[in-house]
């Protein structure tokens, strides 16, 4: 029987001025960007935590400590590649990823394909193995007030 594991991940970062907005490794034109130690790409962070969680390997803060200057401004897709290598070294491969970004603005639909392509390439997957959706929070709570952007992800791993 094929061995499978599932993991889930969540992240949220604050929206501020004078920061770029990077989601799924794609730069998006917007008057606000996400604050963080790295490039604050919440979607990529949620996917990494889901991959690690599936194998009980901890979370991204364990591998890329926010106290370590080495990760200041780091490209989250480069971190994703490292997490993928760890998964592969443990004998697992990704079956599929599904995710949702919670953002009141900007409209993300025009950028979803680019994000799927970028993350699929980084993970050596087909774009149809990387689901990315967007929703508003209907003006409710922090994401609804545009104080931040959040992302949720689930990842299915298959033993090689
Ligand atoms: N930042 C966003 C949020 C939503 N979308 C798209 O709009 C659809 C409707 O969103 P609701 O939150 O009103 O249900 C959603 O299904 C997405 O297709 C978007 O592109 N960017
Ligand atoms: C990505 C890391 C890298 O230091 O920092 P941040 O960009 O602050 O992101 P967060 O999700 O708060 O914490 C995880 C850290 O590993």
UniProtKB/TrEMBL annotation:
Highest taxon above the source species: Bacteria
The protein's matches in Pfam families, at most eight in alphabetical order, are given as: YgbB (PF02542)
Q: How is the cofactor bound?
A: Binds 1 divalent metal cation per subunit.
What does this protein need as cofactor? a divalent metal cation
EC class (word): lyase
The UniProt site entry described as Transition state stabilizer is assigned to 37, 136
E.C. number, please? 4.6.1.12
User: Which molecular function GO terms apply here?
Assistant: 2-C-methyl-D-erythritol 2,4-cyclodiphosphate synthase activity
Catalytic activity, reaction form:
4-CDP-2-C-methyl-D-erythritol 2-phosphate = 2-C-methyl-D-erythritol 2,4-cyclic diphosphate + CMP
Q: Cite the annotated pathway.
A: Isoprenoid biosynthesis; isopentenyl diphosphate biosynthesis via DXP pathway; isopentenyl diphosphate from 1-deoxy-D-xylulose 5-phosphate: step 4/6
**What's this protein's family per the entry?**
Belongs to the IspF family.
The name on file for this protein is 2-C-methyl-D-erythritol 2,4-cyclodiphosphate synthase
Organism this protein belongs to: Stenomitos frigidus AS-A4
Q: What is the lineage of its organism?
A: Bacteria, Bacillati, Cyanobacteriota, Cyanophyceae, Leptolyngbyales
């Amino acid at each position: 029987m094929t061995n499978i594991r599932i993991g889930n991940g969540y992240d949220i970062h604050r929206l501020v001025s004078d920061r770029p907005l990077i989601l799924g490794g794609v730069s998006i034109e917007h008057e606000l960007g996400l604050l963080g130690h790295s490039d604050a790409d919440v979607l990529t962070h949620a996917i990494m935590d889901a991959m690690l969680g599936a194998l009980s390997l901890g979370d991204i803060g364990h591998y890329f400590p926010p106290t370590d200057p080495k990760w200041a401004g780091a490209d989250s897709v480069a971190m994703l590649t490292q997490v993928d290598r760890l998964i592969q070294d443990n004998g697992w491969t990704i079956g599929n990823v599904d995710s949702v970004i919670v953002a009141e603005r900007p409209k993300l639909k025009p950028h979803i394909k680019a994000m799927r392509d970028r993350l699929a390439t980084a993970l050596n997957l087909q774009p149809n193995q990387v689901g990315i959706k967007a929703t508003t929070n209907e003006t409710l709570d922090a994401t609804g007030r545009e104080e931040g952007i959040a992302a949720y992800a689930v990842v299915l791993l298959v033993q090689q």
